[in-house]
Amino acid sequence: MSRLSVSEMVWSEVKDCLKNVKLAVIPVGSCEQHGPNTTFVTDTDRANEFCKLLGDRMGDKILIFPPVTYGLSNHHMGFPGTVTLSVKTMIDLLVDIGVAIKKHGIKRILFVNGHGGNRVALDAAIQILKYEHEMASYWSSMGTNLARKALEEKYGIPKNIGHACQVETSQCMYLAPWDVKSELKPGELHEESVYFKNPFIDGNAAWDWKKDVSENGALGDATKADIEMGKMITDIALDYFENLINDVILKV
Ligand SMILES: [Zn+2]
């Protein structure tokens, strides 16, 4: 099935496909440091390339829009090159995208998130889109969390996963190898910091990644990354999204 992506179309092609399209899909990334291992556009490229593969599976049911290339990265501002939006701007940006898409007649929207820091804005944006703009709105991540069981069975859950680590770097090798540096390094963790002794049961803190978490910006050990792990995570996530769209989102 050939995918529908506005990045590869002209307006008349979009107009013609709207009668079949059931859902708008928007990749959401960041401009954020990923230690010495992968580039600032890692999250954006992972989400964007993932959505292309999803489009190849879903054909004309979904219309893919260009990625949101900046996100919420305040906790990484200690590393030069990182750019963050304010929480309010991020929420407004996501809502504005949804409202514009609805004007073209698509009433379902799914954000595919490549960056954990965006969660708070995505949660707020889908609430606003649903209750203030009557859009069936959803978001989901597309990485580690969906594949935890398989990761545990095949690899044992690697320690300290989540950012520029073995798992994310593996997925980047598979989806966007041009973002991966040739020399990979493990994280230089502040293991005695409060971040790793997080006492919160229900709640969190606004961490400073460089001071609280990792001196070089990475978690875990990206030297153990491999493309097969990246393919496994991605295939699991693609199956999950395909079922989610067919069995839940398109039933609404
Ligand atoms: Zn990332």
Question: What is the strand and helix layout of this fold?
Answer:
Elements: H1 11-17, E1 23-28, H2 42-58, E2 62-64, H3 87-103, E3 108-113, H4 119-133, E4 136-141, H5 148-155, H6 166-175, H7 209-213, H8 227-247
Parallel strand pairs: 1-2, 1-3, 3-4
The structure holds zinc ion.
Zinc ion is lined by residues 34, 42-43, 115, 163, 168.
Describe what this molecule looks like in 3D.
With 252 residues, the protein is an alpha/beta fold. It has one domain: Rossmann fold (3-Layer(aba) Sandwich). 40% of the residues lie in helices and 8% in strands. The chain contains eight helices and four strands. Strands 2-1-3-4 form a four-stranded parallel sheet. α4 links the parallel β3 and β4. α2 crosses α8. It is globular and about 55 Å long. The two termini are 24 Å apart. Zinc ion binds next to α2.
